[in-house]
Amino acid sequence: QVQLVESGGGMVQAGGSLRLSCAASGRTFNTYTKGWFRQAPGKEREFVAAINWSGANTYYADSVKGRFTISRDNAKNTVYLQMNSLKPEDTAVYYCAARPGGVATMEIEYDYWGQGTQVTVSS
What we know:
This protein is an all-beta fold. Helix content is 0%, strand content 50%. It is built from no helices and 11 strands. Strands 2, 4, 5, 6, 9, 10 and 11 form a 7-stranded mixed β-sheet that branches. Strands 1-3-8-7 form a 4-stranded antiparallel β-sheet, with no helix packed on it. The chain is globular and about 40 Å long.
């Protein structure tokens, strides 16, 4: 069974950093685009960042650009989201996702999803 598992979430003070990981199991996702989404209570799920199969093409939501960095290690079948200068408005459940095509920003364009990991940023 194909599976994506997020880890690295937690609670951090505003201005701090966290690094999220998403590991693939059951098959290789080396040729798949990987994305990160987040959802706060009462809010719609929103796009955060995406990276193509080679890592050469990345895209970020304006709200996180300059603070977050997406990367991948295909040898480990893992994608990362380095989050710096965290703000209280970054508080959400963060999900990783995968799709066989190129970089995309909409939930419906992704085929595989992880279970999510909670990120809480206090003021």
